Amino acid sequence: MEKSDSEAVMQALAGDSEAFGLLVERYHGALAAFAYDRLGTVAEAQDAVQETFLRAFRQLHSLREPERFSAWAYEILRNRCAEILRRKGLERRNLEEIARERAGRAQFQPLDRLDEDEKRLQLRESLAKLSPVLRETLVLRYFGGVSRNEAAAILEIGLDALDKRLERGLRELRGLMER
Q1: Cα(46)–Cα(36) distance, rounded to whole angstroms?
Q2: pLDDT tens by residue, 54-70
Q3: Cβ neighbours of residue 26 closer than 8 Å, sequence gap 6 or more
Q4: What is the pTM of this model?
Q5: H or E element in which residue 36 lies
Q6: What are phi and psi of 91, to 5 degrees?
């Protein structure tokens, strides 16, 4: 049986480094997707996630509700992304800049990869046009791979509110993608 977040936190606090490794393994992908959405580059997202886990490890003793580790880690990451963007003087990376970077790299890729990259860029641009609340909800649930319950806990909303945000976000995203 797999350890719960609460059990892993308690064991990590007792000195079990493998228990914290389990938390890293469990949430790395979801946090990376979230950071990539906020920062726009894989390198910055990886750095932010690494710093998030380092901060979480160092401050684990301050986590009052071990069962809320994922929500706590997302909060650390949200703050870290905001720090990075503030330092750069940006609210979000300019999507045109990202498109130019990708277009430059795309000329050296096979044609079938170009179609995939174009679709990803269109999705990313469409996501960027959503309100921050809807974008964050969709990224957490569909790109971060977290469950409905986890997403609701992270966003500190009920399941009904989460479902309404997801429905609205998907509807708006489809409309943007069809244009």
Answers
A1: 8
A2: 999 999 999 999 999 99
A3: 5
A4: 0.69
A5: helix 17-39
A6: -90, -40
CATH number for the region 97-178 comes to 1.10.10.10
For residue 165, the 8-state DSSP code is: H
Cα diameter, the chain: 54
Question: Could you tell me if 48 and 77 are in contact, meaning their C-beta atoms sit under 8 angstroms apart?
Answer: yes
**Domains 5-88 and 97-178 alike in fold:** no
Those residues whose C-beta lies under 8 Å from the C-beta of residue 86, and which sit 6 or more positions away, are none
Domain ranges of the chain: 5-88, 97-178
Task: Please list the ranges in the chain whose pLDDT falls under 70.
Answer: 90-115, 117
Q: Are 94 and 101 in contact (CB under 8 A)?
A: no
Domain boundaries 5-88, corresponding CATH code: 1.10.1740.10
Contact (CB, 8 A) for 110 and 116: no
